[in-house]
Amino acid sequence: MQLRTDLTTRTEQAAYLADALAGLYQGPATPSPIRGGRWAALRRLRAFDVRNYARTRNDVARRTVSQLSPYLRHGVLTLAEVRDSILNRFGHTPDTEKFVNELAWRAFWQIVYAHLGERIHHDLEPAKHRSRVARRSLPPEVLTATTGLVCIDESLQELYTTGYMHNHARMWVAAYLQHWLGVDWREGADLFYRHLLDGDPASNSLSWQWVGSTFSHKPYIFNRQNVERFSGGTFCNRCPLANGGCPFDESYEQLARRLFGVTLAELEGRR
Description:
Layout: H1 10-22, H2 38-47, H3 53-56, H4 69-73, H5 79-90, H6 94-116, H7 140-143, H8 150-162, H9 167-180, H10 185-195, H11 201-212, H12 224-229, H13 252-260, H14 264-267
Helix pairs in contact: 1-2, 5-6, 6-11, 8-9, 10-11
């Protein structure tokens, strides 16, 4: 194997070596998109193109996210080297700014965790609005990914088989469990933590609390229009409930009233 001498940074050199060595190992097939250690992480970092990230990062179908979170979670990559790699390759643009902002959120969750410790696994604030439905345990159809809702079931199936779920889909699932089904957020957080390869106590629990409004100023909700927009219609086009019975097929005003018994302005804290 001939080594190149034109690579200037240690990250470039390590990534090149990782690419070269990758062809020497043929491991068993795995359904997970995340595998390997430092070499695999550097390859993924090197391959990630941040251009258009700000516009497409929420698109569940197109998958333009980096999928670096498992490597960050387990310390294979650091936030600083990911930030520096992206800025060195793409400069300061709206896309790199948005990506670095997402890295900052991960750092923020860790700071909160360091400060509060195990308190993050309990309501940090009273919920601004609670679902009109109340139950604690996860229903069996969630555990088996058989709710009948394609957007929810396929997101859960991906979680159970690969250990990964797109962040926007995580928000949908978290909101569905808390606000539509009335499941205690800790039950959902435990479910995610058991399966996610990037499962991190801080990011996981605090994100669930953000959706539930015990660590944010309002609950996060979504509707069918949101699912169609950020999946290119791929879920709704195949959903048996698309022509009737979809619990998300309402306006935000209607959902605020049905789920919480308040107006949308009240839900969002607007006067």
